Amino acid sequence: VMERLKLVLQYFQSNSESISNGICIILALVSVKLYTSFDFNCPCLPQYNKLYSLGVMTVPPIILFFLGVLVNRHTGVMMDEWMRPTGNRSKNPAVVKYLFSAMIQRALLAPMVWILVTLLDGKIFICAFSVSVDPALFQGLDVIKIMAKVPCREDVIFKNSSFRKAVSRYVRCHSQAVGWSILLFLIVLGAMGRLIKPCFDDHATFLQTRYWSNYLDVEQKLFDETCVLHARDFARKCVVQFFEDMREDTVLYLPHPPFISNFREDWEEEEEERLHGITKQQQVDKLLNKWYYSKPELDVTRISHRPKTCVTWEDREGNTLYSDV
Amino acid sequence: MDKFRMMFQFLQSNQESFMNGICGIMALASAQMYSAFEFNCPCMPEYNYTYGIGLLIIPPIWFFLLGFVLNNNVSVLAEEWRRPTGRRTKDPTILRYMFCSITQRSLIAPAVWVSVTLMDGKSFLCAFSINLDIDRFGNTSLVKGMSEMERIKLLARIPCKELFEHQEIRAAASRYIKCISQACGWMFLLMMTFTAFLIRAIRPCFTQAAFLKTKYWSHYIDIERKMFDETCKEHAKSFAKVCIHQYFENISGEMRSFHYRRSSRDGSDDDSEDKKSDEEKLLGIRAQDDMNKVLWNWHTCKPALALRKDE
């Protein structure tokens, strides 16, 4: 299962449009799951029925809409392009409009899914409108308070539950009709949009707008990547520079003659490089102390012009044998 | 796992098989949606027929239009129809072919919904229970003495299990109507399959050569559009990369004269091979102020979309 998920993820990451579409669909599925797991709890009191239903029908879609806007990458790109000063690059309002409409369309999917699932299920309509049903349509008692209790099965007033079921069916029927009408309206809008858009829009301008909005997205991502890589190199050089600053001229006491001391293995050379000249315990302690109390400034210009340390070999009596830079 | 990958790749390999995949998914979605949808007959004489037949007709229309909305070829078709002629002549047969193929694919999900609804029978039961002749199903004492209105109301309640008291009559009536409904469903399926067969079998009798040409050019248009989009995306990436590099170098170039007095005379002969590439990676930005300027100017003064040619 993990492999399949990885494959699907790879496919979606191939371009940023796919990512946005994928996130959009995930939000829609989340909204359906949220509805099925939500414990709908009609108050069954005349004053509060309508309020509760209105709340359940509008508050989650608003939350899902804002979530959709937040999660979309294009929101940041669009705001950036809209708010930036003109500078050297002229601003193209068509690009901002394109990004805005793409973002809004994607963000509207999950709320619409919630509203439609709500309507097709019908519980909310029953809760809200059972008081408004004309009881004369059904044989039975006709008190408003009793009508308000229709959504609640367990109430003791409904000894004869067939009345309650009949009213539920009636209201749910209306709710489903409203749901399907909205679905039909939306899909007709979508189909008309697809078919008619090329007749009105200038397709050539559209191609340009689409290219430049994709460009903005790619540019932002590449800029972030370049900054991250640059930061890494900068940090490495800064740290190396700091180590090398702590180097000192050293004095070594060695009995053997210079021609032997010049012989080194390749791996030893590398190791020497990595030590950056810090070879004694007190140097290390001083270095670590300084790293905390006095961090170096952020300037690595000097690293290409670093001063060289000097190594001197002396024999036991203190006579200088050899000096090397 | 490999099979899954191969299938995925195959589906993506060309637009036709991708569209076939989407078509199959929509058919499954329509069957799933039917089973998830809670059928809720109102059991009232005024609304039964509307509800039953409405549920047979409106969702198929919805799925048909959804097929148009989801199908990318619709935009291709519309663009090809509206484009100015320019240097490339327009061929109306291609447009007709594309339109036919889009329509054929969009008809599958509605057909699935209608078949499933008819086979299930609930929709017919809801719509036509009023027209039943109840004398056939049991003792006629049930409706003796009832006015017309009351009889109709009683019949309208047949689809609802909990609202109709006489369970045997209800069972008999619902079996009867479901039977008719299933017969209609099978006839519908037979008719659709036969029509599809006729279209497929008879077409080669007419204009096969022209048909091959049309199929080729409509594929070509589709693939050309996809390649153009991909090339634009690749170009945007390269454009952005060079633009950013030149931007960094521009800013470091401004600062270079400022730092010049701080640098010693020559530092270039110490650099070993890898240090040179490290230096290059820094793109000339080596100090905090420079980097701050880079980031500040990125928002306040974005570089122009005009790349210098590198010498």
Automatic annotation (TrEMBL), chain A:
Subcellular location: Membrane
Topology class, membrane: Multi-pass membrane protein
Keywords, ordered alphabetically: Ion channel, Ion transport, Membrane, Transmembrane, Transmembrane helix, Transport
Entry annotated with the keyword Membrane: yes
Assigned GO CC terms: plasma membrane
GO biological process: ATP export
Molecular function terms, GO-annotated: monoatomic cation channel activity
Regions crossing the membrane: 21-38, 50-71, 177-196
Similarity comment: family membership: Belongs to the CALHM family.
Stated name of the protein: Calcium homeostasis modulator 3
Organism classification: Eukaryota, Metazoa, Chordata, Craniata, Vertebrata
From TrEMBL, chain B:
Main location: membrane
Protein localization: Membrane
Keyword Signal: no
UniProt cross-references to Pfam families, sorted A to Z: Ca_hom_mod (PF14798)
Membrane-spanning segments: 21-37, 49-70, 183-202
CC terms in the record's Gene Ontology section: plasma membrane
Membrane topology of this protein: Multi-pass membrane protein
Feature: compositional bias, Basic and acidic residues: 263-280
Assigned keywords, A-Z: Ion channel, Ion transport, Membrane, Transmembrane, Transmembrane helix, Transport
Superkingdom, taxonomy of origin: Eukaryota
Disordered: annotated segments: 261-280
InterPro entries: CALHM
MF (Gene Ontology): monoatomic cation channel activity
One of the protein's GO biological processes: ATP export
Family: Belongs to the CALHM family.
The name this protein goes by in its record: Calcium homeostasis modulator 1
Organism expressing this protein natively: Amphiprion percula
